[in-house]
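Minutes, project check-in

Agenda point 3 was the complex the collaborators sent over. CS summarized: two entities, 873 residues total, and the question is how they sit relative to each other. Sequences were read into the notes so everyone works from the same version.
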Amino acid sequence: MTTLHGSLRAALFCATALGVTAPLAASAESVLRLDEVPVGQLDPGKASDYADSILMFNAYDTLVLPVQGGPGMAPHLARAWEADGDSWIFHLRDDVTFHSGNPMTAHDVVFSLERMQALGQGLSYLFGVVDSAEAIDDHTVRFNLSEANSPFVSALVRLPIIDRALVMENLADGDDEMGDWGEAFLAANAAGTGAYTVSAHNPQEETMFLRNEDYFLGVPDAAPDRVRLRYGLEAATVRTLIATNEHDISSQWLPPEVLRAIGNAGGQFLTETSAGAFYVKMNTTKAPLDDVNCRRALSAAFDYGAIMQIIAIDEGVAQGTPSTGAIPVGMLGANDPDAILERDMDAARAHLAECAHDPADFTLEIAWTAEVPVQERFSLMMQSNFAELGFNTEIRRVPWAVFTDLATSAETAPHISQIFANAVTGDPDTLLYGQFHSSAAGTWQSPEHLADDEVDRLLDEARRAEAEDERAALYAQLNDRLMEIAPTIFAFDRVSVFGASNRVAAPALSDPDAAFGLDGMGFSFRLMDMTD
Amino acid sequence: MPPLLRLILWRLGTSLIVLIGVSMLIFAIARVIPGDPARIALGANATAEQVEALRARLNLDEPIVVQYGIFLRDLARGDLGVSLYTNRPVTADIAQFLPATMELIVVAGLMMVLIGLPLGALAARYRNSWVDSTIRVISLLGVSAPSFVWAVILMLLFAYFLPIFPIAGRISEAMAVPRVTGFMLIDTLLAGRFDAFRNAAAHLALPAFALALSGIGQAARLTRANMIETYDKPYIEMAQSYGFSERKIARSYAFRPSLIPSLTIIGLDFAAMLGNAFLVEAVFAWPGLSRYGVEVILRKDLNGIVGTVLVISALFLIVNMIIDILLAYINPRIRHSTRPS
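CS then shared the predicted structure for the full assembly.
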């Protein structure tokens, strides 16, 4: 028994001795703590995911920024710009320096574009239309495009400007004369002008930011002094950390019940409307969905109200807003916000009567992405909805990697599949072209394998049109056309919801008039206030 | 040649063959998992041209035999390729993440030995008493619930309701010390920071205990059963008839023979923890190799998968070899019966 008592005493001593050290040391500086899914890609030439966007928008700057609370682009590193045929000329600010102290010039802009095109990763496809860029002088740069392209200006929100001189000092061996284009260096270091510098970066663990006191726009006093962005925290861990005031903002990927628990414990919800939507894709080449009337029938039978209940988190907070059509509310060409889609079984039966196929002859395959469990609930809802029309369905769980393969062929693409998509630049072109233009058919975005001349024409013309009114009219026509041929069920407009403590205020994630409408930009730390 | 040295050489030789076999197997398996690694690496928005370019860069267009040849050539130079998941050399990733996992499982392994074995011995010594019953219930609980369940329960109990221990991470920000070995306990001591050492140990306590609980239960149950069996042996009766104290009998005559099967199981548990630590690492935000291993599999990062599996396999073999040597040291019959056949 002496041994047992001794062990207990030793265990209690150890627990006490270790435990007293647990609380963090008090600090006068304000620290913002948040999390995202791994991995954090610090190289802006490869950035594509949400975490990458947060890193990019804080460590780097771009020539333009989305207007807060409205459409269009505002000057940022560029003071002004003008189009000259297929060329665009940007006049740069002359008071901007990189974290290294080097001045930002037109040569850095040219280098950043050429690097992105050379790497060919991330969102570099947005700049496929740019033939070349040239520095006219230190503060003027010209982009020469292969053809007129209105979405080009908005694409520039995805062209972070890199410190050319610093990268050149850190080139490693590579395939061409530019070595590795600084890949190794920029994977671990930031070389931007952003409001925050990166003091430490581990792509699987965390990134630490420090306020850039020399930022050309200044960083308000209330903004965090330091930011700790962690990767891969579990839902239970995040909930516990927020409850004990050791964490400030969760990722958007928490299950609704965990977000609800954070709210119930006194936390707040932050939201970002990111010019995206949830789409139910129908393979337009496979019977019975090769008949437009069958597709219309399914679209009308879809329960738009029930899916909103599935994604509801709390009163007035949900991971989406009701859909009004093919284009999310707030984007060019969107329908009136009050014109929300509703289930109409009479219309569904009328469309089905026009369909050349008998639903009893088919079993529709409904695929859901294994990594997104909520899609299973969507699938069960659709199974029930479509059964009312006499359709047999089979629900299939498909890992994302498998789905991307299946989607490439019209034969293997499921009858019905589900995706979240968003406009990576905020412009409808980056949301719609890849989904519905026939030249882009057969990707994860376009498992419909749609080939419609009218849709193609409208997408191409909207790309070329210069006036915003003209583009809005073209996208409105496209919206109508897509509703008419129903390749897709436009289920709901996507909203990202984050659980947060009350010690942080983030207008860009709570006030629609301050929102950017671009994934990740609401996490510009300089625009956040730490309240204690 | 001394029997022990012969045993070591024999195990080294067979381990090398096993490692080569594992490398071939995992190389092939990684390439037949559904999904295009280039597509997954480049993200949902990549164009077909970008995907093709990356496939060519990764030699994925070559026959698998050629790919394996390239892999062996690079491996001979200590190059495991670049991870598509982190965009860093796999060797750098392993060097970064392995110490965290090693620290976790070494401490968990020590807990298994230092808590599990004494608990088993105590239960056997006081068999059928309330002490025995209590230890058996605790052991059963440890064995029956998976470690991630314990991780969440321990976190709620001792970090949330009773905020004794930290919730996540390896060390508090304010206590960070320069990285030397990657083992936080060692690095804090090297920095001469005993406050940081205590802080790192506090961060380690819950995840290590959660990971060790199953092994503690298993070791306790096995040691108890073996000791009780040993207590029925004639030589124990003889020791009792000679009037030796119960403590001496337990320590010198009952415990040592019971140690052999327990050590074997602990060795297997210890090695298995390398793979099983994933969920505990996830709950406690522990930046270790197990988590990295699961992430690279999910993203079909071919170089990451092969590198991680090879390292875990090598560690598994090393741990088993150490256990074999320990057993041979404890039991001369094993040592002398070893034949390289």
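Noted in discussion: Chain A touches chain B through 61 residues (CB under 8 Å).
Follow-up: revisit at the next meeting once the mutant set is ready.
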